[in-house]
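Re: zinc ion structure - here you go.
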Amino acid sequence: MTGKEWLAVAGPAVAIAGWFGATIVRSWLEGTPLNGLRRFFGMRSKPGKDAKLSVIVLTAPEPKWHVGAMGKEPMLCLTILANLAHKSDIPLRIVQAYLRGTKPVGVFMPFIVAGPYDEPSIIHFSVRPIIVEGLAKLTRKVVLVDQFGNEHVTKPVTFSTVHVEPWRRGLTEEGQTIKCHICDKPISMMDLHESAAIPAHKSCVR
Ligand SMILES: [Zn+2]
């Protein structure tokens, strides 16, 4: 190639590089997700599709677990208060939540994360199997699923539980019998699960 030919090729290339550079710099300055660049490549901009959701689980009130039941099936119910934020052009809807290593069960109330400045959300969700015993603490990552099926994973969250006094569940006197919500057989005080909101045998909560 002669010098002239090089110039013929390099000229437009430099111009294009310059245009790209300006676009990238402008996008960066304006905080937009390179829509101009995507349009140039014929890529459909899908705002929200791959939106990065920041999830910060707040430490107060403390994340809690307790045992509930759906019909006769015990489930592990979890509550967190979390600050959620994203910079996507369209709102994200959180439609499911579970702990790593478990499956979501029961009712989940979907909620919207509009953008970067939403108030913290109280998130209730329930899972199976019940992966904690007695009054132990439970540490797991929480997975939030948006309307596109994208999973947003938190750092490990430590859940604690509250001891539910037997009298809160109808046990008032020694010798009185109550029946297990799960198996319908009588429960002695010794066998009563420590934290289940329902009266249930320790052995039935799993
Ligand atoms: Zn039982």
